[in-house]
Amino acid sequence: MQNYFEFYGLPIQLNLDLALLKQKFFEISRNSHPDLFANATPSEQEKALEISTLNTVAYKTLLHQHSRIEHILHLYHTDSNQNLPPVFLGEMMDMNERIDEATPETKEQLTQEIAQLKKDFEVEMHQLFEQFDNAKEIDRASILLTLNQLHLKNKYLLRLNERHDTFAAE
To answer: Which of 20, 55, 75 finishes a domain?
Structure first.
């Protein structure tokens, strides 16, 4: 797997300097755009197209937190098939049932609870990002296991939030 951080000469970090990422993206775009190689040899044109394509994929991957996390997990070969704690899964089942059974009277309380879940999750993710970014390479493995768990939880929370938003819009 291509290391997109390495491609841009950036450190592997969860809290990425997005302005620097954008700068690197445009720098490579200016130097490797296929139109600049219209009169070049076929192999040079192909190489420019490869670099341009890689640049676009790398930028889109690193730009968004979700895909950046997945990229880092893949770089470190972290098992993405971890099981989530049964307590968390139970909580998600309970929240889904409450959304299904919600009435206009209970909607506001449910909205507040989901907002608090998201807030707590974001605080936990921010702390973990700081730990990862400041950790030595050898210490990152244990942090990545926790990161993977949180990443999987985030997927549940996003689906829960989507279901709630659909209900709230009705």
So the answer is: 75
Alpha helices in the chain (DSSP H): 4-8, 18-32, 42-63, 65-75, 86-101, 104-134, 140-169
Tens place of pLDDT for every residue, the chain, 170 residues? 899 999 999 999 999 999 999 999 999 999 988 888 888 899 998 999 999 999 999 999 999 999 999 999 999 988 666 778 899 899 989 988 988 888 888 888 888 988 898 899 999 999 999 999 999 988 898 899 889 989 888 888 888 888 877 766 66
Residue that the structure tokens 């676009």 belong to: 56
Cβ-proximal residues to 143 (8 Å cutoff; 6+ apart), any chain: 128, 131, 132, 135
CB 132 within 8 A of CB 140: yes
Gap between the Cα atoms of 11 and 3, Å rounded: 10
Domain boundary among 15, 49, 75: 75
Which CATH number goes with the domain that contains 39?
1.10.287.110
- Using CA atoms, how far apart are residues 16 and 47, in angstroms rounded to an integer? 28
Q: Residue 108: exposed, middle, or buried by beta-carbon count in 10 A (0-12, 13-18, 19+)?
A: exposed
What would the two tokens of residue 138 be? 């050898």
Range of the domain at 165: 86-169
